[in-house]
Design goal:
Order of helices and strands: HHHHHHHHHEHEEHHEE
Structural class: alpha+beta
Strand order of the largest sheet: 1-2-3-5-4
Radius of gyration: 45 Å
Number of strands: 5
Distance between the termini: 48 Å
Helix content: 55-70%
Length: about 425
């Protein structure tokens, strides 16, 4: 709920409609006064020659007092209700011949307090005082009538269920419905306006959240692409660096070996360009599923290629498959591929020239496990702290519901183990 909500005032068009409504009510009240005057309302010359309707000038004042304030009913509802109530009370007192539009204007005034007042406590107090005052007035009139046999002479006053008692009861019930309806419908109108405002606020908030979520999705996608670029560039550049160094050392003594190294460099460069092109294409795709597929076409079937590249780059590597092979989802396969790629890249960077790598892919009953171990200087790498590669691997594995273990081995070297449970086939 909006605890400090204030119902907004209508614009100029709304105020113009209020003024037009007040003018139409004034016209209707004027016609009603003329008709009641013509019909002899408030005229009883046989009983008292002095009893006659109010003069037209006084009726005109009452007409203005009953209707004109309604032009400001949504700006100053409490003041309008009080003015109209006083005019409604004075009109019959001064024998203004009107009994139709005065009731309509009072109903609208009380309704407007409930529907448009910005001070809810004042709105409640104002309406209760007006209603109580009106019922006191009705009670006084009924008391005077019951003690005056000349008023309503045809109504019996004897007995609890006399004609006059029935007349009094129907008057009380009519006014209860009248004032209760004005009170109730005004309150309901305010609550509905408040609920509508809350709904609009929630709709606007949801729209902002959707926009924020879309922006976050774009940001996360950019982070993912940046990580992909990091993996691709780091892997292939490390291969090219190792091969370039090897070619430089043997170019004079072993041109054939140098040529082979240069060929590996060329192949790595082509692969890097191809993957970079694929990733950049992802940024241009509108369909996120197509984009994900275009950047995630590699999987565990390409692990032998990574092992071969590592061996060609001067870091001997072997691949072992343990257990009964079974298909995994493309996302899991791509994750394992990237973890293997990052691990082999780190070996080439940090393990040293004499390091060897053992890549093992185990198919377990509950999932699949990838283990990459090397015989290099793992402790030296651990002392440097985790880098972006480790963070990226950990996030990738966690994204598919797995766990990543990294760290130096007691016998020397370094371990990267990714375990993904309950791999869907």
């Amino acid at each position: 709920m909006i605890d400090d909500w204030l119902r907004p005032r209508p614009g100029r068009e709304g105020f113009r409609r209020d003024a037009l409504g007040a003018a139409l009510l004034a016209l209707g009240t004027t016609v009603s006064v003329l008709l009641y005057t013509r019909s002899g309302y408030f005229t009883d010359l046989d009983a008292d020659p002095e009893l006659h309707p109010a003069p037209m000038w006084l009726s005109a004042i009452m007409i203005v007092a009953l209707t004109a304030p309604l032009a400001w009913r949504r700006r100053y509802p409490e003041v309008v209700a009080v003015v109209v109530s006083v005019a409604f009370f004075l009109a019959p007192t001064f024998r203004v011949p009107e009994a139709l539009f005065g009731s309509i204007t009072l109903f609208i005034a009380i309704y407007s307090v409930g529907a448009w007042s910005r001070h809810r406590r004042a709105a409640t107090i104002t309406r209760i005082l007006i209603i109580v005052g009106m019922f006191v007035w009705i009670g006084v009139q009924l008391a005077l009538t019951v003690n005056d046999p000349d008023t309503l002479p045809g109504f019996s006053r004897s007995g609890v269920f006399s004609a006059f008692a029935s007349y009094a009861l129907i008057n009380v019930l009519t006014n209860l419905l009248y004032f209760g309806g004005a009170y109730y419908f005004g309150t309901v109108a305010y609550r509905r306006a408040r609920e509508h405002a809350e709904l609009e606020d929630r709709t606007a908030e949801l729209a902002r959240e959707r926009e924020l979520s879309a922006q976050q999705a774009v940001t996360l996608d950019r982070v993912r692409i940046a990580r992909e670029l990091h993996d691709v560039v780091a892997h292939h550049v490390s291969v090219m660096g190792v091969q370039a160094g090897a070619a430089r050392r043997v170019i004079q003594t072993d041109p054939a070996q140098a040529s082979e190294s240069l060929s590996t460099i060329e192949s790595s460069a082509r692969s890097a360009v191809d993957e970079l092109h694929r990733l950049l294409t992802t940024l241009r795709e509108n369909d996120s599923d197509d984009a994900s597929r275009s950047s995630s076409t590699r999987g565990i079937d390409q692990l032998p290629d990574l092992v071969e590249e590592s061996t060609a780059a001067g870091v001997p590597a072997t691949l072992q498959l343990v257990g009964e092979p079974r298909p995994v989802t493309s996302l899991v396969g791509f994750t394992l591929y990237r973890v293997t790629q990052e691990a082999l890249t780190n070996v080439r960077k940090h393990a040293g020239a004499r390091a060897t790598v053992d890549v093992r892919l185990r198919y377990l009953d509950s999932g699949v496990e990838l283990e990459v171990t090397d015989t290099g200087q793992g402790k030296g790498l651990a002392s440097a702290g985790p880098g972006h590669g480790h963070v990226g691997m950990r996030e990738r594995v966690a994204a598919v519901g797995g766990e990543l273990e990294v760290g130096p081995l007691a016998r020397g070297g370094y371990l990267v183990r990714a375990r993904i449970v309950q791999v869907p086939s």
